[in-house]
Specification:
The complex is a heterodimer.
Chain A lengths: L5 E6 L8 E7 L2 E6 L13 H5 L14 E3 H4 L32 E3 L2 H19 L4 E4 L6 H14 L5 E2 L2 H4 L1 H10 L17 E5 L3 H4 L1 H14 L2 E5 L12 E3 L6 H14 L5 H7 E2 L1 H8 L4 H8 L3 H12 L4 E5 L1 H4 L4 H15 L8 E4 L6 H6 L6 E2 L3 E2 L3 H10 L15 H6 L8 E5 L3 H4 L3 H10 L2 E6 L11 E4 L8 E4 L4 E5 L12 H16 L11 H9 L18 E2 L23 E2 L18 E6 L16 H4 L4 E4 L1 H6 L7 E5 L4 E8 L7 E5 L12 E4 L6 E2 L3 E7 L18
Parallel strand pairs in A: 6-7, 6-16, 8-9, 8-12, 9-10, 11-22, 12-13, 16-17, 17-18, 23-27, 24-26
Antiparallel strand pairs in A: 1-2, 2-3, 4-5, 4-18, 14-15, 19-20, 20-21, 23-30, 25-26, 25-30, 28-29
Chain B lengths: L3 E6 L2 E6 L4 H7 L23 E4 L6 E2 L10 E3 L3 H17 L6 H9 L24 E3 L9 H6 L9 E4 L6 E4 L15 H5 L5 E3 H7 L4 H5 L12
Parallel strand pairs in B: 1-5
Antiparallel strand pairs in B: 1-2, 3-4, 3-5, 6-9, 7-8
The chains are: A alpha/beta, B alpha+beta.
């Protein structure tokens, strides 16, 4: 029996649920994870990632030494052909070893050398090309403190708002819609309030795999509290087993289905007159725009029977406490904003918002995507969602950061997707990537790859050299969650502590320390007065941010020591705010918007007859930097494309057969899983697997307002392939549940 | 207002909320009733009987974890009969299973003066360690059939239903359907079962390997079979 040296309580680094973890450590090795049964969010329950998926920390491939390319170290000019690092030429042909210049070799070095090279190159490019040439990806996996500091570095030193992170790729549509309709973009209620719902809608979210602990609470709500669950999703997800109704809509037809539900609620006078009169605006115009969205019209577009739409609408409108939980299936569309807006209307019509057990609840993906957004890791906002083009906001941050009046940029920055599409002469030249993995997470990866090759200087700050880090000129080894202190803000807006359980491995350093060290070097090189970087601990960073961002004003490490606090916490004696909008919306009245049906940008046709929709798996996490370097990879080692038995039969595909999935942008070879989990005409792929990356196929069409790509629908064809075409024919998924 | 009932526990009069169990009421009074199969996160089933108490007028001892406090009840939590029953339960457990990692039960044995030698001829419930997945191992020699793992796998948490009782009587063991290996079942490997196991029968794989004498660095290279690209 192992006796632990210590047990460290911290917050899970995977999804937005924010489960409490206890890391049991022996000889600086975490051998067990438990969770206290009185933990505020998860009540002692964990999923496979939280309980067993932390071993990536010790993976031999983890890089814990600063690395620079040889050309930097030898003072040579940058050699041409960054593609050489992959031994593949730009037209896809392998480059023989003898032709590869050793100028691109990684060389281990010390922190001073690495940080000085970063300083030299960033300052050189900034002084030559100005603010617009600089861009940074913050990281929804890193702490609030890390993110605050990185956006502060880019805004205060390089005077640019080209600051964004992966929120752009997940809930940007929901964020923009919520900002326009209510003026705030977080979950209005906490997930644990699901047991107070009597009817709730889950749509575009495979909650059991992506927010496993919230799914447990949903199941409990149904089984033990008598709630009725309506699942609206193209896939027959696990939750359907316990649902009152399942509306299997065609991908990308959210707007007609939700608007038809609104149509029914209005026509059958199931509306909440008082709420509409007192809390909303634009109702009359909205009702007129709704005329076209009859349930029959929605049926022709979505395939969902009109009668089911009516029944679901009546059920939700008739609830005492109704709530809506949604995920990426709503936002990751070229009309993601409209799609989220159509959902928001349902809450406005019925008044199912502003009370406990109701609400509009976008389930946030990453452990700290809420926090990274709150910290201003976005191109239009300072911390606290303060617009960068507002003079008063600018003045506040100039004062906080000791910057001359008018020094900060008023220009809206580029979004995640735009940063790379602007990577060319005269555009973005230098990119700093903290923890993100655009070479897995961007749509249309072949195009992304070209953009990455166009960049002049790339810094990767991560724990592994992942698919994107391979492009970098300098690699800065950071620490994972278990080796640093700070805070994460979960999907419930609960700010919780992250605590170091062990010393950093090798030469790795916590992100916040790397950023401060680097910022000091850049600052002195630029000769600017100091914006302050000499923090002695991360709490000082959070306090600095909280002195301007009133949502976090009352948060100290001491106050959140045990159970966290749910922001807004405007003062030191404020208890936190689990339910938002009880009296009014931040923008005053909730605003109805008139919507039209816009089809997905690429529909199925004769050449590409299937719609591909992408998503995630319980066992893996996003680009796979963590989970593919973990025992989690053993239990789900390969990508599988899900195809309906009827479609499989036509194409002569049996379960487990290798197939080629091809779109207009790329192709991959994977094994097929023949299953009724997906519907006829729709195939599904997880996007975690670099060797068969689903995002080689996806469409980079963007939502015009939110700039979120259309990951959830593109046209593909599926052909039988041979075993030898598979990237790893010897690896076969062998699980009873799949 | 919730209704209350008046009863006597160990001679002390107490007023309890209707619907509370004797265990809850006694614990609120600061009394120490031992429990093994009971867990705050699972539904009480009165399987292990270590929490039995004597209720006046009842023929047999009553499990405090499920018996509700009733008006006029006279309850003894540490009568001689109760202590003898608890001691016997502990002795029977100790003679049939491996309690080496059940610290709380070992503590109870000291407290109740239970001897692991009392039933020297008892047949021990022994089985091989089941090491069939990369996340956790199952060592049913240490299992006392408290049922908590089955409960959290089912309606007390996970709704996955991957494991249940298997076999009858002495042969009873927790198992999967058709004794399939864990990866072949509906198991999602959440490890809720590991989290509630009181005896170390269920254990994270890495903890197990460490106990087997492997070093952290040996364990860390185990799951790296994935093809590695040439590092560049």
């Amino acid at each position: 029996m192992i006796k632990s040296d210590r047990v460290t309580t911290t917050t899970c680094p995977y999804c937005g649920v924010g489960c409490t973890l206890q890391l049991h450590v022996k000889d600086d090795f975490i051998y067990k994870v438990t969770s206290p049964f009185d933990s505020p969010v998860n009540h002692g329950n964990l999923c496979v990632k939280g309980r067993f998926g932390y071993d990536f920390i010790y993976h031999p491939k983890r890089t814990t030494t600063p690395l620079v390319r040889r050309y930097l170290l030898e003072g040579k000019p940058k050699p041409a052909g960054r593609e050489q690092v992959f031994a593949v030429s730009t037209d896809g042909k392998p480059i023989p070893d003898s032709k590869i210049s050793n100028d691109w070799d990684w060389v281990e070095t010390d922190w001073d050398t690495a940080l000085n090279f970063v300083t030299d190159n960033l300052v050189r490019i900034y002084q030559r090309d100005g603010s617009d040439a600089m861009a940074v990806y913050c990281c929804a996996k890193a702490t609030n403190e890390d993110n605050y500091l990185l956006q502060k570095m880019y805004r205060s030193l390089f005077r640019t708002n080209n600051v964004d992170h992966c929120t752009r790729l997940c809930h940007a549509g929901s964020v923009v819609a919520l900002q326009q309709a209510v003026g705030s973009s977080a979950m209005s209620n906490t997930a644990s309030q699901v047991i107070m719902n009597d009817v709730f809608i889950v749509t575009g979210s495979n909650t059991s795999e992506n927010h496993p602990i919230i799914a447990l609470q949903m199941k409990e709500a149904v089984q033990k509290y008598g709630a009725k669950m309506i699942v609206i999703d193209p896939r027959r997800i696990d939750l359907v087993d316990m649902a009152e109704m399942w509306l299997p809509l065609k991908p990308g037809t959210n707007v007609p289905v939700f608007s038809a539900m609104a149509h029914v609620i209005v026509k059958e006078n199931l509306i909440n007159h008082e709420f509409i009169a007192n809390r909303t605006e634009g109702y009359q115009d909205f009702v007129e725009s709704l005329e076209k969205f009859t349930p029959e019209y929605a049926e022709t577009l979505s395939g969902v029977p009109a009668e089911d739409i009516r029944r679901a609408a009546r059920m939700y409108a008739g609830a005492k406490n109704g709530a809506i939980y949604w995920g990426m299936g709503i936002s990751q569309l070229s009309h993601g904003t409209a799609s989220a807006m159509a959902l928001i209307h349902l809450a406005f019509l019925t008044g199912h918002i502003g009370r406990d057990g109701t609400g509009l609840n976008p389930l946030r993906g990453q452990n700290n995507v809420q926090g990274a957004s709150d910290m201003g890791s976005m191109p239009f906002h300072y911390p606290g969602y303060m617009r960068v083009d507002n003079l008063e906001n600018r003045a506040k941050w100039e004062k906080a950061w000791n910057i001359e009046e008018g020094g900060l940029s008023l220009k809206l920055g580029l979004t995640t997707t735009e940063i790379l599409s602007h990577a060319h002469e005269g555009g973005v030249r230098a990119l700093y990537i903290m923890g993100e993995n655009p070479m897995m997470s961007e749509p249309n990866l072949n195009e992304t790859r070209k953009h990455m090759l166009e960049l002049e200087f790339i810094v990767a700050q991560d724990i592994f050299i992942n698919e994107s880090g391979s492009f970098a000129d300098v690699f800065l080894p950071a620490t994972p969650f278990a080796e640093k202190d700070g805070t994460f803000s979960n999907t419930d807006r609960r700010v919780q502590r992250v605590r170091a359980a062990q010393a950093p491995r090798g030469m790795a350093r916590p992100d916040w320390q790397i950023i401060c060290d680097l910022a000091l070097r850049i600052e002195s090189r630029l000769g600017r007065p100091t914006a302050k970087w000499d923090y002695s601990n991360p709490e000082e960073v959070l306090r600095e941010m909280g002195s301007i961002n009133s949502d976090y004003a009352g948060i100290t490490y001491e106050r959140i020591d045990k159970v966290g606090l749910i922001y807004p916490v405007p003062s030191m004696d404020h208890p936190g705010t689990p339910t938002l909008f009880t009296e009014s919306f931040p923008r005053g009245r909730g605003k109805f918007h008139q919507l039209d049906y816009v089809p997905v940008r690429e529909e199925a046709d004769d050449e590409y007859p299937f719609i591909l929709t992408t998503g995630r798996l319980l066992e893996h996490w996003h680009g796979g930097t963590m989970t593919r370097n973990s025992a989690l990879n053993e239990i789900y080692p390969e990508a599988r494309v899900e195809i309906h038995p009827a479609d499989a039969e036509i194409h002569g595909i049996r379960n487990g057969d290798p197939v080629k999935v091809q779109s207009r942008r790329g192709e991959i070879i994977v094994r097929a899983t023949v299953t009724e989990k997906t519907s006829i005409g729709v195939v599904f792929l997880p996007w975690h697997f670099a060797e068969s990356a689903a995002n080689l196929l996806t469409n980079d069409a963007l939502d015009p307002q939110a700039k979120i790509p259309e990951f959830k629908a593109c046209a593909v064809q599926v052909f039988p392939a041979r075993e030898n075409d598979l990237p790893n024919p010897e690896i076969v998924l062998n699980r009873g549940r799949y | 207002m919730t209704e209350t009932v008046n009863l006597t526990i160990d001679g002390q009069e107490v007023s309890a909320e209707q619907g509370k169990t004797l265990l809850e009421v006694a614990r609120e009074m600061g009394k120490n009733i031992p429990t093994i199969c009971f867990h705050d996160a699972t539904t009480a089933n009165a399987l292990c009987r270590i929490c039995v108490v004597e209720v006046e007028g009842q023929r047999v001892l009553q499990p405090a974890c499920i018996v509700k406090a009733g008006a006029g009840m006279k309850v003894q939590t540490r009568s001689e009969k109760v202590i003898r029953a608890r001691r016997t339960i502990l002795e029977m457990l100790a003679s049939t299973m491996d309690l080496s990692e059940a610290a709380e039960i070992q503590q109870m044995m000291i407290e109740y003066g239970a001897s692991s030698e009392r039933f020297p001829d008892a047949e021990r419930r022994e089985s091989e360690v089941k090491d069939d997945n990369p996340m956790y191992i199952r060592d049913y020699s240490k299992c006392l059939l408290c049922w908590r793992c089955v409960q959290v796998c089912a309606e007390d948490a996970q709704y996955t239903f991957a494991i249940n009782f298997d076999g009858r009587g002495f042969e009873t063991q927790i198992g999967t359907f058709f004794d399939k290996a864990i990866p072949q079942t509906s198991c999602v490997m959440c490890g809720q079962c590991v989290g509630v196991c009181p005896t170390g029968a269920l254990k994270p794989k890495r903890e197990f390997l460490l106990e087997q004498g492997m070093s952290p660095s040996e364990i860390s290279v185990m799951n790296t079979g994935r093809k590695q690209r040439k590092p560049r």
